[in-house]
Amino acid sequence: MAEGREVQWVEVTEGQVGQRVDNFLMTRVKGAPRALIYRIVRKGEVRVNKKRVKADTRLALGDVVRIPPLKLAPREAVREVSDSLRNLLAGSVLLEGRDWLVLNKPSGLAVHGGSGVKIGLIEALRQVREDLDFLELVHRLDRDTSGCLLLAKSRPALLSLNDALKRHQMSKQYLALVAGRWPARRDFVSARLDRFDAGNGERRVRVDSAGKVARTRFGVREAFARATLIEAEPITGRTHQIRVHAAHAGHPLLGDDKYGTREGGRIAAQLGLSRLFLHAASLTFPEPTSGKPVKIRAPLGDTLDGVLARARDAR
């Protein structure tokens, strides 16, 4: 973990133009939790060109940012990246371009720290990739979901990829194992989704006519005795969209501890499945500089391949 013991004055370079102050600080102060970043900005300890700023202030070329000395208490410090996590991330890179990279995100690793998570993928990767001045998520995956995760290594690339996402020029295909026989004719689910507080600070999602528009395409990949391997393509990008839409259709994802059923739990146990079976199998996006399409696939891995093998044997 990096701690600053003296005031730092950092000049904004071309690759950092337009970046928010809080994100800029997260890349500069390794190991600092986001809550601490917000606190020092709010107290005026962070200055841009000697003036107080807000966390969402955008930086311009040549701006000089004052970063105060920080001594992190053990309870608030972001955990150092362990050797095992460092090796896991290094081995998870599927493809890397000049200003972007795609990881095969492991299941169980949150993309962001916070809410009891001492270190997330982005914080860990910033420690591992000290050669990068800029590293931001283009999109997110649930903690328990594995597969293709796209990150930008420059501000222009982030803006370009975010624009492609908004214009539906980026496509993501997922593989999921669901309970029961998914009907081949059920190739589309459109149901509005609403986030709500489920208690204990946990946020969940439910189908609600007052919620936000959400659409998902589905297709059957392989049918088993008590489960179906399906393809899912989210047309919109709502939280837990595939999981809630599948449950709404009567076929919850196996291994889903939020939206699953007891019957789904029994099927998962019989197949030896101990995690959510949801995997971002492929990602297609326009390369930020050339605009040429880039398509990347992420292998399922031994754990999920083993579950499918047992499902085939049970037919």
Describe this structure in words.
With 315 residues, the chain is α+β, with helices and mostly antiparallel strands. Helices cover 23% and strands 28% of the residues. The strands form three sheets. Strands 5, 6, 7, 8, 9, 10, 13, 14, 15 and 16 form a ten-stranded mixed sheet that branches. A hairpin with a 3-residue loop joins strand 5 and strand 6 (100-105). The radius of gyration is 21 Å and the shape is elongated. It starts with 7 loop residues before the first strand and ends with a helix. The mean pLDDT is 90.
* Order of H and E elements: EHHEEEHEEHEEHEEEEEEHHEEH
Largest sheet: 10 strands, mixed
Structural class: alpha+beta
Cα distance spanning the termini? 51 Å
Task: State the gist of this model.
The chain is of the alpha+beta class and 315 residues long.
